């Protein structure tokens, strides 16, 4: 079986991953192709498959620098049927796996003690894709998984706050992440969002703030970092 792969590279997990969180050393497997077109997408180069040659799962698994923690991202990794096979083969190797997905595909039904975590985006109005969200995806999430809200403005924030404080909506952990316009300046919207969360601390409870560390470290990177 083969997959369309954009890149395989080692870096830091720049944000929440369901395990130890941002800063963890890991191998990224970025797959190609996406079924959404979010307005703030920062990986447009991985949205389309085109006629690129596929990479076999065996070749992916034999990548010589692979670490014990892997993040599978995209594009949208669950768009490709072979992704599930790749995940289970990585788990069989004893690798911890995080899958970053966009809220339109169901997760795999696995026990919480598996070394598998899903970080699922809930697309808010600023993305232009909120109508694509499937409520059953978020209901199915486990307590070890994560729902990530990328928040670009006040309207996004209040919708995210309403969902994040609804305990019946999903068992997963909730995380707020600011949409960043200027990667050289985090004193604007990212700081405003953090301050709003602090002011609403009693309402939000255990909702977590997450900044994309890789964008802070390498603000001028155009592709992988």
Instruction: Tell me the radius of gyration.
Output: 17 Å
Strand count, sense and barrel status of the largest sheet are: 8 strands, mixed
Can you tell me the overall shape?
A: globular
CATH-defined fold name: TIM Barrel
Total domains: 1
Largest sheet strand order: 2-3-5-6-7-8-9-10
The number of helical runs is: 7
Mind telling me the CATH superfamily name? Aldolase class I
Order of helices and strands: EEEEHEHEEHEHEHHEH
Strand content: 15-25%
Class per helix and strand makeup:
alpha/beta
Unreliable stretches (pLDDT < 50, length at least 5) are: none
Distance between the termini: 28 Å
Please give the CATH architecture: Alpha-Beta Barrel
Per DSSP E runs of 2 or more residues, the count of β-strands stands at 10
CATH first level: which class? Alpha Beta
SSE arrangement:
Layout (H helix, E strand, L loop, with lengths): L1 E2 L1 E8 L12 E7 L23 E2 H5 L7 E5 L9 H10 L3 E6 L14 E7 L12 H6 L5 E6 L2 H11 L8 E6 L10 H11 L1 H4 L3 E2 L3 H5 L8
